[in-house]
Amino acid sequence: MIKFTCLNCGEKMEAPDSLRGEFLDCPKCDSREIVPDKKEITVVSVKRREANIIPKQKFQIIKSKLSGIYISKKSLAIILIAVVVFLYFAFTSQKSSNPPKNPAPSPRQKHYTSDLDNYFPPAPPAPKPIVKLKPQPKVVPVVKPPPEPPPQKPVVYNPYQVVSIGYMSYNLLHYEWKDSIKDIFGIKRPNAKFFVVELIVRNDDKKERSVPSFKLIDENGAEYGTTSSLSLKDSLGIFDSLNPGVQQRGRIVFDAPPHHTYLLKVSGGFWSSEDALIRLTP
User: Fold this and answer.
1) Which of 7, 45, 167, 260 would give a disulfide with 205, using CB separation of 3.0 to 4.6 Å?
2) Pairing of strands 209-210, 215-217
């Protein structure tokens, strides 16, 4: 019986004498080991065997796990040298078979080319192509109109106070509620109740102006116009013309429900955007 150790993992192995020189699989690492001729091989550690024993053996057998072929170190070195020599000769032969495309000119050729260069100067470089840029559309900045100022609230004046606005002036004299009014055609009765306002209107402009309209506004913002069905002798006619500096006294009548707080809205004129309010205390 021959006792030996696996060179790969250090496993102790045994084989009969009849298997000398044959290959045997290691039961631990499944590597194939050759059965030595000696009957017993001293067991050493794997690191010591790799460091001391293998370098001293000139014909130590190297095992290839992939192919299972065993080649000695000497044979492997010869094969590597042959491969290097083959690659070297193959490279040099390919280089000699392909001469350079632009060989260096001979001295005589160089002389002739230098003379030709003196007679024919080198051509100027080709001009760069002119790239035409497409005209870009002009960007017109968008000018936003200035924001409109918020509408100004009309100024509220106290009763019996002279109000000058636009090119007109107003002076409230008297106001009262009435159930009926007698005009040139007889007694007239309202739908709700008559509200009679007496005042003076004056033209402060330098040319003739017409008397503008009047409005009665309650606390809810509802507007009431003057009553046109009455024909009073002293009524203040709407659209009556007034010369510059001339004033007119008269009455205006509204048909409105009582029990409300009202404001009298007067205008600065037909061509004026100014308005004013006169408070009418109950």
Assistant:
1) 167
2) unpaired
Nearest to 174 by CA among 156, 152, 197, 193: 197
160 in Cβ contact with 175 (< 8 Å): no
CB 79 within 8 A of CB 64: no
Domain range for residue 11?
Answer: 2-56
Q: What is the pLDDT along the chain (282 residues), one digit of tens a residue?
A: 778 788 778 788 887 877 777 877 888 887 777 778 765 444 444 444 444 444 434 344 444 444 445 566 777 888 889 888 888 888 787 766 665 555 565 555 554 555 555 555 677 788 888 877 777 787 778 888 888 777 778 889 998 899 999 999 999 999 999 999 988 888 889 999 999 999 999 999 999 999 998 999 999 999 999 987 677 778 887 778 899 999 999 999 999 999 899 999 999 988 888 899 999 976
- What residues are paired with 279 via a beta bridge? 263
Cα 118 to the center of its chain, rounded Å: 64
Residue 105 lies in a domain: no
Is this model's pTM higher than 0.85 or not?
no
Residue 194 lies in a domain: yes
Q: Is residue 208 part of a domain?
A: yes
DSSP string, 5-37: E-TTT--EEEE-GGGTT-EEE-TTT--EEEPPS
Beta strands in 160-246 (DSSP E): 163-165, 168-178, 181-183, 186-188, 194-203, 209-210, 215-217, 223-224, 241-242
